[in-house]
């Protein structure tokens, strides 16, 4: 009788949850001829993407965005692309090993005034 009572209380198997991607928004202002960057830590070897989502008011202006290494004070570019804002597709994508990195943006002569911008950085698990 005890065996039957115990059989009804068996634990339900669970599926381990998968880690999810981390998305960080880097938003600020970019002046004519200016540049800006933000550092980030990469804790595992995985895919990292960046998507320039907003440049306003010069929405169609081509600017330069990039990834770089970060030594604690300086962001040194290692991969760049000239691009306009895009609603769907990352403009940069690369496999990064653990370390300190940065994402950056520059005006390459196309802005006509101070612009707000947003870059979405996605770090896969």
Overview of this protein structure:
- The protein is mainly beta.
- It has one domain: Jelly Rolls.
- The protein is 5% helix and 54% strand.
- The chain contains 1 helix and 8 strands.
- It has a 4-stranded antiparallel sheet, with no helix packed on it.
- A hairpin with a 4-residue loop joins strand 4 and strand 5.
- The chain is globular and about 65 Å long.
- The chain starts with a helix and ends with a strand.
- 21% of the residues are buried.
- The mean pLDDT is 90.
- Helices, by number, come to 1
Order of helices and strands: HEEEEEEEE
Kindly, what is the distance between the CA atoms of the first and last residues, rounded to a whole number of angstroms?
48 Å
The CATH architecture term is Sandwich
Most strands sheet: 4 strands, antiparallel
Strand proportion: over 45%
- Rg of Cα set: 22 Å
């Amino acid at each position: 009788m005890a065996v039957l009572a115990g059989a009804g209380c068996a634990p339900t198997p669970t599926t381990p949850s998968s880690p999810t991607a981390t998305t960080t928004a880097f938003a600020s202002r970019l002046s004519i001829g200016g540049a800006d960057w933000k550092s980030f830590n990469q804790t595992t070897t995985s895919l990292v993407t960046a998507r320039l989502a907003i440049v306003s008011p010069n929405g169609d202006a081509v600017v330069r965005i990039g990834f770089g290494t970060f030594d604690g004070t300086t962001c040194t570019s290692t991969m760049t692309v000239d691009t306009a804002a895009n609603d769907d597709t990352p403009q940069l994508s690369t496999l990064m090993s653990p370390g300190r990195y940065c994402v950056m943006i520059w005006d390459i002569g196309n802005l006509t005034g101070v612009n707000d911008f947003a870059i979405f950085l996605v770090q896969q698990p």
